[in-house]
């Protein structure tokens, strides 16, 4: 299985890396893709990749909730890093209006700049979107971004938005929320072809049932796969094969070894 989104460079994992890594391998995890948050998180992410390059794959980007007054300086730093380092994707980037909209225009500007990076370097984007799907779709529908593709991490939109994103060529990341009793996620993605879904944990966040409220881990990815397979009424091994192949196609798109 491929966990397409987990923050393994978080101190929670670093402090117990050997144990956590052994649990992930035992659970059948073959790769974990690392989304970046900001300049402060980049060194830990990159160092984890260098020491575990067969297992961890790096992304580079400025997360929308970290877009503040200094976002242009942070983007300048990442643009320079992008010239010298090979990464899997630009991410996680996007729009988040849930907590604060004080930097809404800056979030939009940062997102569009980073989408251009993806086009220039033939990379896909890993998108964080919360309470901002109208603006996200408006941007992705622009002619200049018609060739941008990638994953909508932790998809939380409605059925119309899911179908629109798939029509635009995006894949939806499905995580622990699919296991929550009162979540409407499956109803909103039930008509999305399996060829447009990938699995993720967002560890150490958004743990699936029965670990909800505790730190998440890629070792729990099988629970997410099983729940989605149950909804689709197919064998879990078939679902894992399809979603893993979808992930490998994105990896090939970026020509990442």
UniProtKB/TrEMBL annotation:
- What CDD domains does the entry give? TatD_DNAse
Q: Which UniProt keywords apply?
A: Metal-binding
One Pfam family name from the record? TatD_DNase
What InterPro entries does UniProt report for this protein, alphabetically?
Metal_Hydrolase (IPR032466), TatD-like (IPR001130), TatD/YcfH-like (IPR015991)
Q: Does the keyword Kinase apply?
A: no
Query: What is the name listed in the Swiss-Prot or TrEMBL entry for this protein?
Result: TatD family deoxyribonuclease
Organism of provenance: Aquirufa beregesia
């Amino acid at each position: 299985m491929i966990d397409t989104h987990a923050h393994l460079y978080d101190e929670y994992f670093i402090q117990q890396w050997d144990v956590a890594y052994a649990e992930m391998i035992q659970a059948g995890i073959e790769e974990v893709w690392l989304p970046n948050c900001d300049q402060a998180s980049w060194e830990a992410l990159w160092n984890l990749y260098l020491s575990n390059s067969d297992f961890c794959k790096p992304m580079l980007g400025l997360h929308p909730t970290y877009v503040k007054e200094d976002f242009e300086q942070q983007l300048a730093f990442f643009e320079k890093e992008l010239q010298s380092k090979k990464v899997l994707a630009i991410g996680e980037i996007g729009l988040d209006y849930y907590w604060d909209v004080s930097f809404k225009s800056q979030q939009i500007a940062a997102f569009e700049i980073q989408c251009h990076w993806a086009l220039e370097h033939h990379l896909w984007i890993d998108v964080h979107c919360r309470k901002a799907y109208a603006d996200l779709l408006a941007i992705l529908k622009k002619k200049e971004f018609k060739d941008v593709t990638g994953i909508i991490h932790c998809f939380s939109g409605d059925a119309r938005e899911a179908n629109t994103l798939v029509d635009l060529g995006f894949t939806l990341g499905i995580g622990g929320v699919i296991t929550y009793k009162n979540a409407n996620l499956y109803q909103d993605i039930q008509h999305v072809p399996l060829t447009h879904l990938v699995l993720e944990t967002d560890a150490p966040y958004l743990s699936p049932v029965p670990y909800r409220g505790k730190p998440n881990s890629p070792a729990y990815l099988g629970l997410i796969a099983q729940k989605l397979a149950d909804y689709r009424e197919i064998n879990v091994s078939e679902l894992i094969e399809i979603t893993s192949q979808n992930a490998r196609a994105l990896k090939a798109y970026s020509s990442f070894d």
